[in-house]
Amino acid sequence: MKLSHFNFELPDNLLAEYPAENRDESKLMVVHRETGKIEHKMFKDMIGYFDEGDVMVLNNTKVFPARLYGNKEKTGARIEVFLLRELNEEQRLWDVLVDPARKIRIGNKLYFGDDEDLVAEVIDNTTSRGRTLRFLYDGSYIDFRRKLRDLGQTPLPKYIKRDVEPEDETRYQTIYAKHEGAVAAPTAGLHFSKHLLKRLEIKGIDFAEVTLHVGLGTFNPVEVEDLSKHKMDSEELIIDEKATEIVNKAKGKKKRICAIGTTAMRGLESAVSSDHLLNIHDGWTNKFIFPPYEFSIADAMVTNFHLPKSTLLMMVSAFMGHDLMKRAYKEAILEQYKFYSYGDAMLII
Fold first, then answer.
1. How far apart are CA 279 and CA 302, in angstroms?
2. Number of H helices, E strands in the chain
3. DSSP secondary-structure letter at 173?
4. Helix, strand or coil for residue 132?
5. What is the 3-state secondary structure (H, E, C) of 272-289?
6. Which of 85, 111, 331, 347 is most buried by its number of CB atoms within 10 A?
């Protein structure tokens, strides 16, 4: 498969600027892999496709307010700093992206907040927009993290042109988010409401939680026609014993295992044993899934509608079949489904 196989025309008006009014009332396209049948439902109707003992795998990562705005020393130029990951807690070193990058060089200092009591010094270049910053702050580490959180904004994707609004803080977060570390939400999970989770629980659906801290690597553009040459950035992945027991027990009983989102799916596929069971994992993954690919754990997936040429679309194609994916996306555009982070959902079974 080549990059050009994943291109399509997406009308601008189908990029969701806001989420559905109620989490579980977004539109849901249900795609049956074996028959090619496509149904149009509401997200809360997904309960009808699962039975007692089936398992849903949730990514319980929590988004932190990763976007900061500071001013460059001397010139006062406004600089956006996007926190990617903490490198060293003691030295307060962080990998970040800066914009505009051409103005930021090693040795520059950036000042944050009205009182400018948080300062960062640029100590290294990592990529064209990437920098390593050392934060300078008079206070404990806990106070420093609190300061970052107070100054930071919800890291909505760049395609959303509006300003961040107060409701984004909760809506760009799953209701089961637990472990802070993601710079982007695992968006398939945004459709679950407390009420829907309760109904699924009452029906006897089991939940296995994994933690994959979503980084920008998930969304980095693919710039090579030969997909085998694309390298994913590493993201932290934790799968504990409890999750492996729930998944492997259901697998043994031939129950349906549904990955909620591409990140949950990538997490599962990064920890597969030689006998196709789920392993405990505590480390990193840079797994890139594109067709052809044989999946080992999940036989169903909930996912949003993705952008052309994205690694997420490639995984969906690998899971449902390329021709069926193209047909489903064509129908989604025809039926005015909303795309991307705040958009509608697809259940592939």
1. 22
2. 7, 17
3. S
4. strand
5. ECCCCCECCEEEEECCCC
6. 347
